[in-house]
Amino acid sequence: MEFEQIARNPFALMMDPQAVLYAMEHSDSLARLRGQVFHPLDKPLASSVADDVAAYDRRVDRDLND
User: What pLDDT does residue 1 have?
Assistant: First the structure.
């Protein structure tokens, strides 16, 4: 089967991973895409849990594991 026919048939691409890589490397559409890096808006909290709550959590975890 000719490459152009394989590239248009997703089932044929599943059977030939090398054809997928070739199609990706030689795709004009993919080459024209702009790349962007997105950062999450919410950042993890830097240990805002009170010490007594953290101690309680440790006790509960210890009791569950015993």
Answer: 47
